[in-house]
Amino acid sequence: MTNNTEFTHLLNLADARLGSIATFVTDDWFADVNRMLQPQPPVWKEGVFDDNGKWMDGWESRRKRYEGYDHAIIKLGVAGVFKGVDIDTTFFTGNYPPSASLEACNSPEAEPDDSTQWTQVLAPVNLQGDSNNLFDIDSDQPWTHVRFNIFPDGGVARLRIYGTPFVDWSQNLDQTYDFASALLGARSLACSDEHYGKMSNILNPGRGINMGDGWETARRRVPGNDWVIIQLAKPCLPEEIIVDTHFFKGNYPDSCSIQAALVESATDEQVATRSLYWRELLPAQKLQMDREHTFNSELNDLGVVSHIKLNIFPDGGISRIRVIGKLPA
Fold it and tell me: Where is 133: in which H helix or E strand?
């Protein structure tokens, strides 16, 4: 098991919110395989049983009584390059697999079948129960599907595959993109506070499913304002920005503004300090509850930008942010 958790700041390519889904499983008698792809931390439900046994928050197969092992095939919501994996066995104590491995294939046009050639990206590793089992993955090519093998059987609460989405930017250079989309590689780098909702949520596809599927700060009791810094998928020319307060009614920000810059070289830790001097892309704008706010003519022309800082005044929550624009010529 690795002690290096640097990859966990990357996108979880196996997140169901991105469209990742299990397309095949040898056995999920005790617990549905797709629970393993849910974004929320696993939970324990004391004394809860269904027709097949104890309810568990994850994927759990039956006790194997013959030769072989269990596996699941997962279609990722977005093709990506893998950097690490978390095989999370939280709450699985006497029923976790002793070991596991991960294989991958690149099959964007068709589902894997018996003729598919799988590449091992994580050799069999030992697992611990009720733990986050973190392992580095050394792979430079994009993958669309994974085959997750557990030996010989048992339960896994969450499978998180951390990496970077693969996008062929050489295609359709004149196309308009949402450069704040996690599916294209945008990342939330830092924020002032994320007490109620994670900053990464605002980059997810689609509209939020509830108030918990957004970024929300604690109530500010001191002067100042809350903020989040986003590394856009690629340096771009912003043409339109959408700030969505969907589901936020008694807790939406009173107003917002956006600063931006072209950051050519900086670590994630350095960006927050450097953002103090970024120019204003969007002057302060009043917000309303439970609404998509679209800004275009209000944007200042800063040229090419790679990072934005969304300031909310004084605190509160938003569901999504979109930065619509084009690649520079």
Answer: strand 132-136
